[in-house]
Amino acid sequence: MANNEKAEIVGENKFLGCWYQNVSSFLLLSPIFMLIFQLFLGMLRFGFFESMIVGYLLIFSATVLLPAGIIFRCIGEPYFRIVDARWELRGSSPKKVFKKQIRAPYGLFILFEIVGGAVILLPMVLSYFERGFWRWDGFTFSLNLGLGLVLFGGMLLPLLYIYAKWLKNKAIQTAAWRYICYGCGYDLRGNLEAKNCPECGRLIERERLDDLKASGVMGDINI
């Protein structure tokens, strides 16, 4: 079990997950939900007014809810996942167990670069297939928009790096405070002087106990 790098919640509903996972999933899938709803109304032959309302909701979900879901998935969800006290850590260290969450903010930078590059290149590629030659003029708007997205993503990168580093420190601090065995997820706070985990026998890093004592929360731990 010690070699299995993961974090899991005992008794977690695998389909629905946690509230923060459900929020990000709903926001990301909201345009699909609205599209299905619009198709459903069309099959039932609803009037123009109802279809127009759903159309506006589809535009709102694609332009507001979807970007909000992407931002929450890259910024908010990693934090809530790391500080969730129900998680059992299983692996060599919290940095490895939560490596996906620690790297998640960089997804926002990658998204800006990909979307910006696509906005720049896609119109010119389509023009090439249509006319048979590359055409650089006439795409001033898409070029400026794409370059703006690429530059904005580059400007975000230092902030995302600082946030990812903060998430890594948060993961280490949370694991130190909870004093959980990285091998099996056993709560070690009832055996603070033990050298090995009583559940799986894994050697306990004593510096983690020093960090726990230094944090000043020893009095808050119920043994």
Classification by helices and strands: mainly alpha
H/E element order: EHHEHHHHH
Number of helices: 7
Low-confidence segments: 216-223
Strand order of the largest sheet: 1-2
- Rg measurement, Å: 24 Å
Strand content: under 5%
Q: Which percent bin holds the helix content?
A: 55-70%
Globally, the shape reads elongated
The domain count comes to 3
Largest sheet: 2 strands, antiparallel
Mean pLDDT comes to 77
Query: How many E strands?
Result: 2
Termini separation (Å)?
Answer: 25 Å
Summarize this structure as a short list of keywords or feature phrases.
223 residues; mainly alpha; 3 domains; two-stranded antiparallel sheet; 7 helices; disordered C terminus
Structure characterization notes:
The protein is mainly alpha-helical and 223 residues long. It has three domains: 13-87; 89-175, no CATH class; 179-223, no CATH class. Helices cover 65% and strands 4% of the residues. The chain contains seven helices and two strands. It has helices at residues 19-43, 48-83, 94-97, 99-103, 106-131, 140-178, 206-214; strands at 6-9, 87-90. Helix 6 (140-178) packs across helix 7.
